[in-house]
Structure formats: structure tokens, C-alpha cells
Design a protein that fits this description.
The structure holds 3 protein chains of 3 kinds.
Chain A: H1 7-40, H2 46-50, E1 53-54, E2 59-60, H3 63-94, H4 99-113, H5 116-130, H6 137-162, H7 165-173, H8 178-207, H9 210-215, H10 233-242, H11 247-279
Antiparallel strand pairs in A: 1-2
Chain B: E1 6-15, E2 18-28, E3 33-37, H1 44-51, E4 61-69, E5 72-73, H2 81-87, E6 88-91, H3 102-112, H4 120-130, H5 134-137, H6 150-163, E7 168-172, H7 180-193, E8 198-203, H8 206-212, E9 215-220, E10 223-229, H9 230-235, H10 240-246
Parallel strand pairs in B: 3-8, 3-9, 6-7, 7-8
Antiparallel strand pairs in B: 1-2, 1-4, 4-5, 9-10
Helix pairs in contact in B: 3-4, 3-6, 4-6
Chain C: H1 3-40, H2 42-47, E1 51-52, E2 57-58, H3 61-92, H4 95-110, H5 113-131, H6 139-149, H7 151-163, H8 167-175, H9 180-191, H10 193-209, H11 212-218, H12 235-243, H13 249-278
Antiparallel strand pairs in C: 1-2
Helix pairs in contact in C: 1-13, 3-6, 3-7, 3-10, 4-7, 5-6, 5-11, 6-11, 7-10, 8-9, 10-13, 12-13
The chains are: A mainly alpha, B alpha/beta, C mainly alpha.
């Protein structure tokens, strides 16, 4: 028979194990960031940032991929934000909890769970082929917009719900219409939370590869219209690494990509914390 | 002069199955301070919220009877609720300034109601003076309203209601969270405001009702028990239950 | 029509179009893929492992098995690790440590999947090849990388579940003389179990659906793996690898693969929602 250990001993053992596992997770994270940074940051010169890629990316910089990334991300955000924020307003301010809100919320959760490759598949056949937009900034932006929509809906909904109910009561008692109440008081108060959602969406868009490979394509030319194909940084990095074109340039691209996403996410997190603090 | 400003005819109010008001009839005269007293859950706050249709915000309510504001039936579906709420202002029990500057709190509603922009400064000053807050805040109108003390916040809420230039002011236990000095200031303000406004004051503080109102109704379990001049009710109540309540033997 | 009604209708339309995007995706994938499943026969499509799309053989059995095995492997690694982080953060760390640790761990969510895959190829694959044998690009490599990638999902949802347990439970247990660990194990974890199960299920969804990192480290061979060191091709990689050049029935077959993936994900999401609602 195994002797029964003293509870204090098991507690010490359990705590040590849990902290060790947490430490391991932290180490993995640090390893990833340090590894990419050490090999990538030396590549990050002004020339690398502001020159177009040459010879499939073996030489030159990544300027056109930065521009393509900005274009598709911007398009996705411009399309998804009004839709997402509008949906959140409808869910929180205009409907009582019921079957309609449940369906919309469940649908949005499902949409959040749809794998990006399925979105890529969908965007490829609908936008690229059937609607004839081709591999383009437009097809990529449209598909990305669908991808980030649930993020924007959820964060906006939470932010709007966090605005104290009493503010709405005060506004109504002052003779403001519901729409005035929403635009003058509710939305301004929820703005940091909504911005957080949009920033997280930007982060998601920057790092997305599966969707864009099949919708925005991989042309290295500088995109000039919505119908031009554009290779984003993440896709560029994937191709450089996968086809072994240039490891230094792959590291450089990865470093820029990773650092910008981490900074955006960190800013979003800080903003959210401030919002939480304000209302608690 | 009309004999009433607001007239309730057999007003009943239900939340789902719960009846919050049962056949309430009463008249409120122009430019009087009318007190509504009663224990918690007696229906007094509900009554107040019917008068500017704030009750619309609660799901599953049913109202029967009639409520007249001057000659307008405010329970009719044709009633313009937004306009009604501009005519009948409500001050809530918890001071709740909006997260804006003091000035913004005051001019928000008048501006959206389409009042002349040139008059805003004057409006800020007169409403703050009427709420006896002007001296304390005149140098920091652009500061956040959230920085004010509780008593100041509540007077700001009163000023905000006054800035809409309403005809009737509803006050729902406006001093419940305040210290005696702030309470005294609010009561003093009310007696000044009486010259221009019809005021309905809900309170479960019988002393405040006795001090501050002209006429009083006593509500108990969704029904009116007694209505009359405040002085009379507090000296010779007709109903035993009123007597019990004001002398503190209630419950 | 007055302004209020107008605004309400516009917002309703926005909400409707948000949701319709999901409906359109579903309908689209099914319309494109179902005919092929019917022609091939559902059992053949799902259970056969003979995939030669240019010759008319569409069996994705091996890929389904591979997807499930890779996901299972990711769970074995990711769930204990993620749960440990969540318990440490929610129960055993001071406010100051938590304020630093939580946002730091959330950075994991921001690292793009291609970067995970890339580091897997550079570091993990050679390690496996040199010390365990096989080609290195393998089920094991994919499982390890996915195990790390699901951490943010598992951690954040588990933390929510743990912090939702009322403090009275903890106080009651401590007052009875239990140690902190006994309290966590016997009181807090059982009380948070449905939330933790949700975290695991959503982590599974994330692992099943991941594409780019898996393509880079899994080796992509279409056969039933005999050991964890064998290369595998998952459902997601199958779509991504062949979409670029597929046409006609071949492309339909990729949509059919998408249907299977979609159904798996929906079942996972639905059970997560049901579990959350029952709580």
C-alpha cells in the first residue's frame, strides 16, 4: 500500500509541478520571440522595409508585401466594422433576449469557429472564381472581413453591455431618443472596447495566411487597384520559408510581422484593461 | 387657472403577474410640491415612472386607466414620448452624471431638443444657479462631472433636468444617498423652484415629506390610503394606517 | 417612418447580413461538395483511404484519422500545460504576478500560425529526426506544434471558468482545514468543470481547423500512420495543398473534404455551446 502523504507535501508537489508547467509555457513563448527576433531584427533595415522584393524575394526588401497587407487589412476592417458594430448594437440595444438574439449570437460563435482554410475555400470559389474578382485585394479583403466579423461583434457587444444601464435611463429621462442615446452616450463610452476588437481584428488579419493565399494570391507586384493580386507579408514569409528561397529574408519578414502583431495585441489588451478598470 | 396639472384616473400597473399600482386616482395642482410616501415596494417609484413613460423601458408591463398632463392623455399610443419626457423631467435617486464635463451634462438635452445655440451659456448659468450649484462650480465647468461630490452630483442632476425647461419635475428619493447638509440644500432648492414648476417628490423619509411638500399621498401595497394637505396629514391623519406609518409604528 | 423605426430596421439588416455570411458559407460549401459525396458514396468517401483525385478515387479515410490523431496528440500536450497555467494564474499567483503573466501568455495568441510552423520545421523536426528516427516531418511534430498553438484558447477560457467560481466555495473549504491545493482539486476544479470542458472542446476545434502550421511540419503523406513518427496529411492540409491546381471533380472533392471538416467543427461548437448553456 502506498503510504498516504501529508496534505502539505502533496500541496507543495502540486504547486511545484503547476509552476514548472507554467514556466515551460513561458519558456516556449520566450524561445519563439527571441529566436525570431535575433535572426530577424538584423535584417530589418530601412532598405528591407522600403524596397520592393526582387528575384522572387531572394533579394531586395518587402515593401510591396507591406502595402498589400495594409490594403487587405484596411479593406477587411472597413467592411467588417460597421457590420459588426451595427450587429452588436442591434443585439444589445434593440432586442430583448429571445430566439432572434440567440440565433444571431450562436451564428456568430459558429462563424468564429469556422477554420480559416474553409473561409479560404469559400472565398476562392465565390469571390475569385464565380464573381470573377480573381486573386485580388478585393477578394482577400472580403474574405478577411468575414473572418474578423465575429471578433468585432463579440468585443463590441461586451463593450456596449459594460456601459452602465443608468446612463441610458438618464438619457431617456432627459428626452433623448434611443438613437441619440446610443450615438451620444453609449457608443462614446464603449469606444475603447470597440477599438480593442478592431485592433485584435487587425492583428488576426496581419498573421492570416490560409485565407489570403487562395483569395489575394501571391503576386509580388505592387498592387495598385482593388482587382490586383497582392502578396501579404504572412504569405510572403510562408513562400520564402516553404520554398527555401531566402532564410534571412524569411526571418526578417517574420520578425516584422510578429513584432507588429504583438504590439497591436498588447495595445489592445492595455486599452481593454483601462476600460475594465473604469467601470469596476 | 386650471385646477390640476396632472390627473390620474384609476391607474393600474402590472409587471407580469405582479400588480404594482391598483386603481390609483389623484390630481396634482400646478406649482405645488406633491409628496408621495410609503414603504419600499408600495408602488411610488412605479407611479413616478408612469408619469414620463419611463416605464416603457421595462419588459412585459401592462397599464390601464388614464393619465392627463394638462389636456393630453399621456398613456395614449399617439403621445410623443420624447416630447413628454422633455416636459416632465425625472431626477433619479442615485446621482448619475454622464461621463462628460459639467457643461456637457447640462447642454446635451437642450441642444438635441433644438434649443438656440446662443442661449446655452445663459442656460448653464441659470440652471446651475437654480440648483444652487453655480458658486461651487462656475470656475470649472469643463471639468468632468464625475469629479464632483455626491451632493454636488445630485444638484447637477437637478440642474440638468432644469436646463430642459420642463413643466413638471419628478424626484425619486433624491436625497437617499446624501448627507444632511446636502439634503438641506436640495430641499431649499425645491422650495425655490416651486414658484415655476410643479414638483412631485417621492421619499420614504416621512420627515422630509413633512418639511418639503404642500400636499401628500400615502401609498401602501399599490393603493392610495390617504391624500391631503401635508400639514393636515401629519397632524390629524384620517386613516389608522397613515397614522401608524408617520409615527413610525409601521410594520 | 420615424427615425427610430428606420434606424432599428437598418441595424436589423446589418445583423441579418452578418449572420447570412455564415449561412452563405455553409450553403456554398455543401452545394459544391455534396454531389461528389453522393456519387462516391458516403461510406467510400469517409472510410476509404484511396485518394487519387485525378484518377477518380476520392477516399479521405486516412486524412480523417490523421486529423483526429493530430488533434488528440495536441490535446495530450496542450490541455495539461494550458490547465496548469490557468490554475496558477487564477488560484496560485498574486495580483502583481498575474498582471504580468496574463498579458504575456496572451502574446502566444498573436504569433501567426506560419511562424509556429516555421519554427517547427527549423527546430522540432530535426530533433525528432535525429533522436527518435523517421523523417521528422510527422504526426508527432504536428501534434506538438498544435499543442502549443491551442494554449491561448485553453488558458483564457479555463481562467474565465475558474474565476467564475464564487470565493465562498474556497473560503468554506479552507475554513474546514483543507489546503489550497485540496481546495482547488476537490472544490474549485469540479465547480469549474463545465467551463474547462468547453475550453478543451474549443481547443480541439482550433487544432482540427489549423492549416498552415500543420502543412509545414506534418509531412503530408496520404496514408494511415503506423506510428507517431510517420508523416500524415490532415483534412485541412489536403484542401490547402491541392486547391491551387484542382479543377472539376477534383475541386468538388476538396469541397467535400471541407464539408467533413465543417461538420466536425460544428459538432464541437454545438457541444461547447450546449455545455456552456447548461451551466
Amino acid at each position: 500500500m502506498i503510504p498516504r502523504l501529508h496534505p502539505k507535501v502533496t500541496q507543495a508537489a502540486a504547486k511545484t509541478l503547476l509552476w514548472a508547467l507554467t514556466g515551460l509555457t513561458l519558456l516556449i513563448l520566450i524561445f519563439i520571440i527571441v529566436n525570431i527576433s535575433i535572426k530577424g531584427l538584423p535584417q530589418m533595415t530601412l532598405g528591407f522595409l522600403f524596397q520592393d522584393p526582387q528575384d522572387m524575394g531572394r533579394h531586395g526588401g518587402i515593401f510591396s508585401t507591406i502595402i498589400a497587407t495594409i490594403y487587405v487589412t484596411l479593406l477587411a476592417i472597413v467592411l467588417a466594422s460597421p457590420l459588426g458594430v451595427g450587429t452588436a448594437i442591434y443585439l444589445t440595444e434593440y432586442t430583448r433576449e429571445g430566439w432572434a438574439t440567440r440565433i444571431i449570437r450562436f451564428g456568430s460563435e459558429c462563424l468564429a469557429g469556422v477554420p480559416s482554410i474553409i473561409l479560404g475555400l469559400f472565398g476562392f470559389v465565390l469571390f475569385v472564381m464565380k464573381l470573377g474578382f480573381g486573386w485580388s485585394i478585393l477578394s482577400g479583403g472580403l474574405t478577411l472581413a468575414i473572418m474578423v466579423l465575429p471578433i468585432i461583434i463579440r468585443t463590441s457587444e461586451e463593450a456596449i453591455k459594460a456601459v452602465p444601464q443608468e446612463y441610458r435611463e438618464v438619457c431617456f429621462s432627459l428626452g433623448l431618443s434611443q438613437w441619440q442615446t446610443i450615438t451620444r452616450i453609449v457608443l462614446p463610452s464603449a469606444l475603447p472596447g470597440i477599438t480593442t476588437g478592431i485592433m485584435l481584428s487587425v492583428g488576426r488579419s496581419l498573421g492570416e495566411t490560409a485565407v489570403l493565399l487562395f483569395t489575394a494570391g501571391s503576386a509580388l507586384r505592387m498592387p495598385t487597384t482593388l482587382f490586383d493580386s497582392g502578396r501579404t507579408m504572412a504569405v510572403h514569409f510562408y513562400i520564402l520559408a516553404r520554398e527555401g528561397i531566402s532564410m534571412p529574408n524569411a526571418y526578417g519578414t517574420a520578425a516584422i510581422l510578429m513584432i507588429s502583431i504583438l504590439l497591436i495585441n498588447l495595445a489592445a489588451y492595455t486599452l481593454m484593461q483601462r476600460l475594465v478598470k473604469r467601470y469596476s | 387657472m386650471k385646477e390640476y396639472k396632472i390627473r390620474l384616473e384609476e391607474l393600474s400597473f402590472f409587471f407580469g403577474d405582479f400588480q404594482a399600482l391598483d386603481q390609483v386616482s389623484l390630481e396634482i395642482r400646478p406649482r405645488e410640491i406633491f409628496g408621495l410616501m410609503g414603504p419600499a415596494k408600495s408602488g411610488k417609484s412605479t407611479l413616478l415612472r408612469v408619469l414620463n413613460r419611463m416605464c416603457d423601458l421595462i419588459p412585459e408591463v401592462r397599464v390601464t386607466g388614464r393619465v392627463w398632463l394638462d389636456d393630453e392623455d399621456i398613456l395614449s399610443p399617439d403621445c410623443d414620448v420624447v416630447n413628454l419626457r422633455r416636459r416632465v423631467g425625472l431626477v433619479l435617486s442615485k446621482p448619475m452624471p454622464l461621463p462628460r464635463s459639467i457643461r456637457e451634462n447640462l447642454v446635451l438635452a437642450p441642444r438635441l431638443a433644438g434649443r438656440e445655440r446662443g442661449k446655452m451659456e445663459e442656460l448653464v448659468e441659470t440652471s446651475l444657479k437654480a440648483a444652487q450649484l453655480w458658486e461651487e462650480v462656475k470656475d470649472r465647468l469643463n471639468d468632468s462631472a464625475l469629479k464632483l461630490s455626491g451632493g454636488q452630483q445630485q444638484r447637477l442632476c437637478l440642474a440638468r433636468t432644469l436646463a430642459m425647461e420642463p413643466e413638471v419635475i419628478l424626484l425619486d428619493e433624491p436625497t437617499s444617498g446624501l448627507d444632511p447638509i446636502s439634503t438641506a440644500k436640495i430641499e431649499e432648492t425645491l422650495s425655490q423652484l416651486k414658484k415655476h414648476y410643479t414638483i412631485i417628490l417621492v421619499s420614504n423619509n416621512t420627515k422630509q415629506i413633512a418639511r418639503a411638500t404642500d400636499r401628500t399621498a400615502y401609498l401602501l401595497m399599490s393603493r392610495i390610503i390617504e391624500i391631503g394637505d401635508t400639514a393636515r396629514i401629519f397632524t390629524i391623519p384620517k386613516d389608522k394606517r397613515t397614522d401608524d406609518y408617520i409615527s413610525g409604528r409601521f410594520g | 417612418m420615424d427615425q427610430g423605426k428606420f434606424v432599428e430596421r437598418v441595424l436589423f439588416l446589418l445583423a441579418l447580413s452578418s449572420i447570412s455570411s455564415l449561412v452563405v458559407i455553409t450553403v456554398f460549401i455543401f452545394l459544391e461538395g455534396l454531389p461528389l459525396i453522393f456519387q462516391t458514396g458516403l461510406t467510400d468517401f469517409i472510410f476509404s483511404s484511396h485518394w487519387a483525385p485525378t484518377k477518380g478515387h476520392f477516399g479521405i479515410g486516412a486524412m480523417i484519422v490523421s486529423s483526429l490523431l493530430v488533434t488528440l496528440g495536441a490535446m495530450v500536450l496542450g490541455v495539461p500545460l494550458g490547465l496548469a497555467c490557468a490554475i496558477v494564474l487564477a488560484e496560485f499567483s498574486s495580483a502583481r504576478v498575474r498582471a504580468f503573466l496574463k498579458p504575456t501568455l496572451e502574446l502566444l495568441a498573436g504569433i501567426p500560425s506560419v511562424v509556429y510552423g516555421f519554427l517547427g520545421v527549423i527546430w522540432l523536426v530535426p530533433l525528432i529526426r535525429n533522436y527518435l528516427g523517421g523523417p521528422g516531418l510527422s504526426l508527432l511534430a504536428a501534434a506538438v506544434i498544435l499543442g502549443i498553438m491551442i494554449l491561448p484558447t485553453v488558458i483564457s477560457i479555463s481562467i474565465d471558468a475558474l474565476t467564475a467560481v464564487p470565493d465562498i466555495y474556497r473560503d468554506g473549504s479552507i475554513a474546514l482545514g483543507a489546503t489550497e491545493w485540496q481546495t482547488v482539486r476537490r472544490v474549485v476544479l469540479p465547480a469549474a468543470s463545465s467551463g474547462i470542458i468547453t475550453a478543451v472542446i474549443l481547443g480541439m476545434g482550433r487544432a482540427v481547423g489549423e492549416t498552415m502550421a500543420v502543412i509545414m511540419v506534418a509531412g503530408n503523406a496520404i496514408k494511415l500512420p503506423a506510428s507517431i513518427l510517420d508523416p500524415v496529411r490532415t483534412l485541412t492540409s489536403n484542401i490547402a495543398l491541392e486547391l491551387g491546381y484542382a479543377a472539376g471533380r477534383h475541386r468538388e472533392a476538396l469541397f467535400a473534404t471541407g464539408i467533413v471538416l465543417f461538420v466536425i467543427i460544428m459538432i464541437l461548437n454545438l457541444s461547447a455551446t450546449l455545455i456552456t448553456r447548461r451551466r
